[in-house]
Amino acid sequence: MKIFTITMTPINPPYDDAAKNIAVGISERIKKHHFTFISAAGKSFSLGENVSFEFSPFQGPGRHKMSLLQKIYIFFISVFRISRIDCFQFFFNPQTYFSFVFRIIVSCFKKYSVQIVTSVHSLIVNNQENKISKLFFADSVVVMSDFAKERLNLLGVRNVKRIYPGVDLKRFNPDGLPKVEFNCKNIIYPGTYRVLSDYYSLSDFLQIALKVVDKVAGVKFVMACRIRTRKEMRLENEFRKLVENAGLSKNFVFIGTSPDMPGLFNNSALGVFPLREPMTGILEIPLVMLELSCMEKPVVYNNIPGFNELAEKNIGVMLKNCSPQAYADEILLLLTSDSLREDIGKKSREAVLKYFDMDLTAKEFAQIYDSFKRSSNAR
User: Fold this and answer.
1) Predicted local distance difference test score (pLDDT) of residue 41
2) Going by C-beta distance under 8 Å and a sequence separation of 6 or more, which residues neighbour residue 59?
3) Looking at residue 322, what is its pLDDT?
4) pLDDT tens for each residue of 351-361
5) CA dihedral 40, 45, 48, 51 (to 10 degrees)
6) Is 186-355 the same fold as 2-166+357-378?
7) What dotted CATH number matches 186-355?
8) Is the dihedral of CA 231, 233, 234, 238 positive or negative?
9) Is 267 helix (H, G, I), strand (E, B) or coil?
10) What is the pLDDT at residue 377?
């Protein structure tokens, strides 16, 4: 089956976006189907014999919102290359214009389709709930959490299948990497400044650090936050000033995007991902939290929809409340108990291997594609 996968951002290095990582991981593991992506990386970029590209000059790397010219280009390519497409796969939340146009295209040309909801929180925030079901037309709708499936079912969306996001277990594997000493006191935040500011608080995050540093010397908070927008650049500068004014400059390390995320995670004692409410623009279960867990590192978080599914599977530590004191207390407990940290880390990796393996994710997507192929053969 020939599958045209449309993502919000072009498929090209660096793989700093969860949707891109998953889309690429699926294509690498399902060799019997052919995948076409839109890329802006040039013709030297290659993924495998079962992958081809439509090269677009209208959206370069680093842009995470689709430009108008990019949208027009996608519509044009979809019709112009229609004979080379058996299935359209949309790897982003449905939008009114895409749904209207592609509902017509897949119907007129009798093509299969898959719509993948990357963030049900974003979908609900950006649309009136009574109109959400009208955005869906695909033969199969895929969501990334049980919470998302329940919400869409309640909103009247049909053909919904939950497929958990997958982690590349070969890449995120602590075996073979240098053994980190138990006295490591690096605490990593692997999110974005936008999420930290909008859904927790920069000042409250600093309060967590102040409470931890006051009890344990030598602690370092590693801010592994990619900067993709002017807002995030402004927020990083704002946070740096807060850190400096608090006298904690020596206790913070600002990384940005790292080419070696497994190594960065490996050199951390634990991770934190504080939120007060569900976030938009990111998977309900952030891929970075799973990757960190896969490196046998405990992740501390609080009870919000999506995250509670991690707690049910013994991944990390879920707090009863999101106060700075609650986070500081749990971090201090983990820093001062090597055995507890190791036990939670090992259980977290075991759970990722069982539920969030990229091979499992690809297998479930393959079942969808295979069902289309069987349907085509039966016609």
Assistant:
1) 63
2) 9, 10, 40, 66, 67, 69, 70
3) 95
4) 999 999 999 99
5) 20
6) yes
7) 3.40.50.2000
8) positive
9) coil
10) 63
As given in the structure block, the two tokens for residue 147 are: 């919470």
Provide the mean pLDDT of the chain.
91
Q: Backbone dihedral region of 218: left (phi > 0), alpha (psi from -120 to 50 degrees) or beta?
A: left
Q: What's the token pair of residue 282?
A: 């990111």
Task: Check residue 32 and report its DSSP letter.
Answer: T
d(CA 210, CA 369): 51
Residue 40 has phi, psi (to 5 degrees) of -125, 15
Q: pTM of this prediction? A: 0.92
Q: What is the pLDDT of residues 152-203, one digit of tens each?
A: 999 999 999 999 999 999 999 998 777 766 668 999 999 999 999 999 999 9
Model pLDDT, residue 15: 56
pLDDT in tens, 77-125: 999 999 999 999 999 999 999 999 999 999 999 999 999 999 999 999 9
DSSP characters for 75-144? HHHHHHTGGG-SEEEEES---HHHHHHHHHHHHHTT-EEEEE-S-HHHHHHHS-GGGGGGG---SEEEES
CA atoms within 13 A on the CB side of 318: 14
Confidence of residue 229 (pLDDT cuts 50, 70, 90): confident
Residues 256 and 225 sit within 8 Å (Cβ to Cβ): yes
Domain parsing of the chain, residue ranges: 2-166+357-378, 186-355
Looking up tokens 């982690």, which residue turns up? 167
CA dihedral (12, 18, 19, 23) positive or negative: positive
268, pLDDT greater than 70: yes
Q: How many angstroms separate the most distant Cα atoms in the chain?
A: 70
Task: Return the number of other C-beta atoms located less than 10 Å from residue 228's C-beta.
Answer: 17
Domain at 2-166+357-378, CATH from 3.30.360.10, 3.40.50.300, 3.30.70.20, 3.40.50.2000 = 3.40.50.2000
Report whether 283 contacts 18 (CB < 8 A).
yes
Say if residues 89 and 4 touch (Cβ distance below 8 Å).
Answer: yes
